[in-house]
Structure formats: C-alpha cells, structure tokens
Amino acid sequence: MKTNVIPHIALGYNMVRDEWKNWKLEYCSYDRVEILNVIDRDDNGFKTHNLVDLQAQKYTPQMKDKIFFMKGVTVPRIKLKDLAVKYKIRTTTDIDAATVIVGSSNASDKLVKNGWFYTCCKFKMKAFIDYAKEIGVMDDYYYETVNDVLEPHLMDINVQYILTDWRTSRILGTDKEIPGDLKTIFNEVEANMGPNYSIIKRSSSSYFWTISEDNLNFLNSVTGKKIIEQNGLLEVINGDDCTTIDEVTYQNLRNMFESADTDNHLMAMEIMSNCNYKESMLYLALLFFHHYDHQIYYVKAKNHVNFKSLKNYMGVDSYFHTHVDGVLDILKNNNCLDKNALRVIVMDEFKEYFDNNGSSKYIKPLGFELQTDVSEELNFKWTDKDPEEQPRVEIETPNEDTVDSVEENIDTEDTVDELVEKEVLDTAALVQDEDVEAKVVTAIEETSKIRKANGETADSGFDWF
Questions:
Q1: What is the pTM assigned to this prediction?
Q2: Most Cβ neighbours (<10 Å): which of 31, 69, 398, 412?
Q3: Within this chain, do residues 171 and 280 fall inside the same structural domain, yes or no?
Q4: Same domain, 209 and 91
Q5: What are phi and psi for residue 43, nearest 5 degrees?
C-alpha cells in the first residue's frame, strides 16, 4: 500500500465590497491545518479496499498459539474457551509475540477514514496567505501555523496539490469575487509554474481515504506476515461438534420466530449463532430472509458480538436484502450454492414466486434454470428438469440363469385380452345362462375391434401395479 503525505488546510476568511464595489479581504485565519497520509490511487481507483492481505483459510490450532486480533474482528473471545483448554491457546496484544494474526474483511473500515475533499493549488495557497499577511488581515500566529505545514511541500514534486474545503477552493480557483491585486498575483503564480505542475482550479470534490500515523505503522509491522481472516477461525470454533441446522431444525426455528414470545426469538438466534455455519448456510440464509425484518431486527441481541460474528461471516448487513436473490447471493459468496440448495429454494421455498414469473438475476422464469452468466461462474448447469431432480425407478436386471425361462414365459403368457375374456367367460359359466355368455363374447369381440382400429395393443390403457 502506497501513501502520500498531503497537507489539509481549510481557511477562514471574509471577503467584502468596499464603497466603490471592489472586493476586499477583511480578515483571514484558519479552520483546520493538518498533515494527512492519503492512500494512493491507481487507474482503477484505490489500490485495495482491504488494506491487509487476508487469507480466508481454515485455521489449524497449534499448542500454545498466541492470537493477536486486529481491529474490526468480531470473534467472541468467550468462544475460544475450548481451544484455550485443549491447546492452551492465549490471546495477546503484542503483535511481535503473536504466532497467529486474525484479521477481518472489515479491517479497512476500522483502520482508515474517508471523506470528500476539494483540491487546490499549493502555490496559490502560499500566495494567498502571504497576501493576507502583507495587508495585515492575518496575524503572525495563524500565518506561521499554516506556513509551517505548507512550506515543506512546495517543492515536493510528488505533491501537486493540497486538500481543502469548499470555501477555500472557491477563492483559490476562481478569478471572480477577489481583489484586483490578488487576481494579479494569482496570474503571476500560474505564469511562473513549471511544466511539472498542473494548474488546479475548483471543480468538484473527490473521495479520499486517509490513515493515521499509528495505523500506518501497524500495517507496516504486519506486512509479509500470515494473517488469517476471522471466518477461518469461526469455522474451527463453530465446527463439527456444533449443531447443524437441517430441514427439521429449520422448521422448528421458524416456529420459534413466529411465536409471540420474544424469548423464543432470542433462543432461536442463539442456536443460529452457535451452529456449524458452513453446513447450515442454506437454512441460515432462509431464516434471515423470513425473519430478519419482522423478528430479529427488534431483538437487542442482534448487536451482541456472538450474533454479530454470524452476520459478518455471512455478509449480512443492517439492511438485509429481502429478495430471493439476497439468499442466493449469500450462498454464492460463501461457496454454498449447489444443486441441492437450488432445488430447495426454487422448488420449495419460492416455488409460488417463480410460478408467477418472479424476476431473478440467477433463475430464468418459466424454465427454472440458471442464468447463463451464473451457470458459467458456478461451472455447472441446473434446471428443474435436471435428471438428479427426477424420481428414479429401480429396474431389477435378471441374472443369466433366469434369462431363458423369462424368454419362454414371454412367448407362452396369455395376452391381456385373453385373460379378461377367460375370466368373464368363467363368470358367465357359473350362472349357466347361454344368453349372458353370448352377449359377453360379442362385447369382447367389439372391444377388440375398436382397439385395433385405434392402434392400441393388448397392454395399452392397462395399469400395471
């Protein structure tokens, strides 16, 4: 990570018109003067959002490990009790003594500040404070404070501008509403600027990331060290020995959330927080979809470090996206979007939604299949006609010893029509009524003719059980 040291100077001044309607600088001081470590940019914006190289690999505990937690980590320390007993693992605040460093994907939010700044020409800033000092509207204290920060950077070719506020950029970037002698000074500054310096006039503000000296030193101290992303540690803590939320547990948790007793909501959230995250991801995502806005949001424990670590692991923020794509996003981002998850979501949980042509960036309507770009990204195809989703019928294959006897039976077995005819004639014989027998035979013959005329075989239309 590369940073530039850039002054940030926000002036306080008052410009008025005299009796001849000419602009006059009435007084000048400063509102803010400081040196900022500004994170450098490249062609794609800032070089990195995560300022440290995080590896989301699973942590393998070692005897007497010492764990250092970076800012932004939400792993509940109480959950380390089993590791502390089994492996004698301890936490430490000494980065040099640590054998394991645990970071967070939210590290940048804790290590840096961000904001909108205007840029202005450093030479014009120097000319302006010199002008204010010369006409006596800026006292020595204010002048020396600003000049001590600005002076070292005037000849630094790597710093072509400084940061300021809207009002200061306005006075330095326009030729209007300023005294005529000051306008002449600004013109001379621009004329004397070398080809290596750009003339920056006020246009619009830009977004900058800044980092404090202490945090910058910390990042430099961990450069080159192996840093485990907190999710890798959470998978160990909430591992194989934890509860896995299956379909039955999922339905029980839904019943708890739908209860009027808020204690049931809290208990359901505790079960979610302490389950095996990876193996329970499908049903965790569905629970957030169905119950975050109506139940979870109103439970204070949602901000407890235990439940907060679950939300961070899954990538759920304070404003959960209540759409089927929000569920699919969570599963894809955690490498849990497979064919079984798609079957549960499309064919069960959201079947009515997709039956009504509900939109989704993942699923095509009226076909129940993955969108082409998603299918290519996941490297597999899925539709509701997938063979894996269809019921399978086990067909017993005869062995060699029985093949001959089976073929003989095929030749000698009575046809369906013959079996029916025989059964009806036997019944007619029991009643010993020649008229009944003649009528039955005639009916059978007529039925046979109709079947042949329709192209039906002896077996067609007959249900086998």
A1: 0.56
A2: 69
A3: no
A4: yes
A5: -65, -20
